[in-house]
Write a structure and sequence with these properties.
The complex is a heterodimer of chains A (about 170) and B (about 425). Chain A has about 170 residues and is an all-alpha fold. Chain A is about 70% helix and about 0% strand. With about 425 residues, chain B is mainly α. Chain B has helices at about 1-15, 20-35, 40-45, 45-55, 60-75, 80-90, 95-110, 115-130, 135-150, 160-165, 170-200, 215-235, 245-260, 265-300, 305-315, 315-330, 340-355, 360-375, 380-390, 400-420, 420-430. The chains are: A mainly alpha (about 170), B mainly alpha (about 425).
């Protein structure tokens, strides 16, 4: 089933995980900042453009947190043509493969972002808008890459723990 | 060799069901590592940089905000009230409910920006209503699934936002304006076969006996929902707010309507609405960021060049190439979702666009029309799947109805391909081009 459908119409009644709170918080703050921007501009003809930097950061945070929550549910966009058809054994194999490839990828991406983070600290880079040290923003990216990796490993473990004999309606 | 690796790894992973973003990112990263074999780590630093660059774009903020608008209006109860008003307006009779479904989907298209959200909102109301009036469920599901596809053409549209952040020279306001008339044309193109099929097969005979709601009372009920597209589109047009700000204003307006006027949304629902919208946006934006890695390797490794040269020397010309692209997109659209199609094919199509001097805004509209068709063409069709789920039918049962709608939508697309002014007149009139 496609991701958007799974997410929109079959809300999983699972326990709330930290990523959910981060995503909800980021969404709410993004709405409030943007609305405040409209109102302030309307009443005072000024714009506080520096919030752009914060908004972009919150959007990045939202993406990483949401991607992690989606990884846990195996709800990322994919071609389901083979993934959700065929024998249970094949489906399990593909699920396992997908989760492990994702885990390896995000682990690697996390390592590369660590390298970027160290460079930013070493060269004391600062952000364009607010002049803050860049690592304050960047450090969350590798962290979340490793969290997504851990969620993918967790998914793989749950898939492999499922008994093969589990009958599945075609 | 590197090109083969890039596409080989990418296609194999994707077909096996690995998330599309991961397939794009891994294929791109491997190609970059191979191309910089003497210093792979140095070359690989392009991977995080392009991932970050793909996401850190301020205009992209419109995407999660419009997804949120869709989630809120989905629950706000405006769809039911719009349906009642539309029925009061057009009256009862065979073929009228399919007409209502398409019209309401188009108006909701002026609020939300994604097809599946629209299919859920319209289908949630219309499928039961059409069943009561004697329409077969597979037919109803086909109409709702196809009608919801007009959503990504009628502004606001998530597809246009993704296209705009990926293609230079196509601003969000220009694309939004350009989608208006093609969206209306597509809606008309669906109304004709939907009404004709109902009449020919005698569907909805029972509809005539159903009561017609009072016009004035139903208009008052639908008023708050009908004002939403006026606020969003009018506000952008008047220059009151940017697309992102229009979305956020619509968020607060939608919450006001849902929580205060219609009382369909409670405080407790807020967390779930924000969580759902955040997660849907994150899934889309993750593909966007990781596709940045793929696009970088396609561009810097010169992978598109031989392809472009082959097309140029094939003698197909501008029209022939466009026709070929549309056939390819029609097939790919059956298996891939719209955002992924944009992100995978744009690095390859952008050079073609420049070679043949296609207008990027017009091309974006055409591409979106093809993606819209893919949203309701079996076997893999997000909108149709949502509608089938609600109607409790299998997607195979819809084929004999939905293919008429696909054909008719395709005719509308060809019209926009042949007469670019259908798309370009409005943005030029507004001075966005």
């Amino acid at each position: 089933m496609p991701t958007l459908l799974t997410l929109a119409k079959l809300p999983m009644k699972t326990k709330r995980i930290p990523e959910d709170w981060i995503g909800v918080g980021a969404m709410a703050i993004l709405c409030l900042i943007t609305m405040a921007n409209v109102l302030i501009r309307y009443f005072s003809d000024q714009s506080f453009a520096m919030t752009e930097e914060v908004s972009i950061f919150l959007m990045l945070l939202l993406t990483l947190a949401g991607a992690s929550a989606a990884m846990r549910k195996d709800a990322h966009m994919r071609i389901e043509f083979f993934y959700e058809t065929g024998s249970t054994a094949r489906q399990r194999l593909l699920q396992l493969f997908s989760a492990l490839v994702s885990a390896v990828f995000f682990f690697g991406l996390g390592l590369l972002f660590c390298r970027i983070l160290f460079d930013e600290i070493k060269f004391a880079e600062t952000s364009m808008g607010l002049g803050l040290p860049r690592w304050i923003y960047t450090m969350w990216v590798p962290l979340f890459c490793f969290v997504i990796c851990a969620r993918a490993v967790g998914l793989a473990r749950r898939v492999s723990a499922k008994p093969v004999t589990e009958a599945q309606a075609e | 060799m590197i090109a083969v690796t890039l596409f080989g790894v990418f296609v194999v992973l994707m077909v096996a069901g690995v998330p599309i973003g991961v397939s794009l990112g891994l294929g791109g990263a491997l190609a970059i590592a191979l191309a910089n074999a003497d210093a792979p780590l140095l070359g690989l630093m392009a991977v995080p940089q392009n991932f970050h660059a793909g996401l850190a774009k301020y205009p992209l903020l419109a995407l999660p905000m419009f997804v949120l608008v869709g989630s809120i209006f989905d629950r706000s109860g405006v769809a039911q009230r719009m349906v009642t008003f539309a029925v009061a307006l057009v009256g009862r009779g065979p073929g009228m409910l399919p007409l209502v479904a398409i019209l309401v989907a188009m108006v909701l298209g002026g609020i939300s920006g994604s097809g599946p959200a629209n299919a859920a909102a319209v289908g949630g109301v219309m499928i039961a209503a059409m069943a009561r009036a004697g329409y077969p469920a597979p037919f109803s599901a086909s109409v709702v699934g196809a009608a919801a596809a007009t959503d990504i053409l009628i502004p606001p549209s998530i597809a246009f936002i993704v296209y705009s952040v990926s293609v230079p020279g196509a601003s969000v306001p220009a694309l939004f304006a350009a989608g208006m008339f093609p969206g209306i044309l597509a809606g008309l193109a669906l109304i004709v076969p939907a009404v004709w099929l109902s009449r020919r097969n005698g569907f909805g005979k029972a509809e005539r006996e159903l009561p017609r709601p009072p016009l004035w009372a139903s208009f008052r009920g639908a008023f708050w929902g009908l004002m939403a597209p006026v606020l969003i589109l009018g506000g952008m047009r008047q220059g009151w707010f940017t697309p992102t700000e229009a979305a956020v204003v619509a968020v607060f307006y939608g919450l006001f309507v849902g929580m205060v006027i219609h009382r369909t949304i409670g405080w407790r629902d807020l967390f779930e609405i924000l969580r759902e919208a955040g997660e849907i946006s994150a899934v889309i934006m993750m593909v966007l960021g990781l596709a940045g890695i793929f696009a970088y390797s396609v561009n810097t490794l010169g992978i598109a060049d031989p392809l472009v040269k082959a097309v140029e020397s094939s003698g197909l010309g501008s029209g022939g190439t466009l026709a070929l692209l549309m056939v390819v997109l029609l097939i790919v659209g059956m298996f891939l979702d719209g955002v992924s199609i944009f992100l995978i094919f744009l690095p390859l199509m952008y050079p073609l666009m420049q070679t043949f001097k296609w207008d990027p805004v017009w091309f974006g509209v055409l591409l979106t029309m093809m993606v819209a068709i893919g949203q309701f063409t079996p076997p893999m069709a997000v909108n149709l799947l949502v509608a089938c789920k609600l109607a409790n039918v299998r997607i195979e049962e819809t084929v004999r109805w939905v293919l008429w709608l696909v054909a008719s939508f395709l005719v509308a697309t060809i019209a926009v391909a042949v007469f670019p002014e259908i798309a370009l007149w409005l943005p030029r009139y507004y001075g966005y081009l």
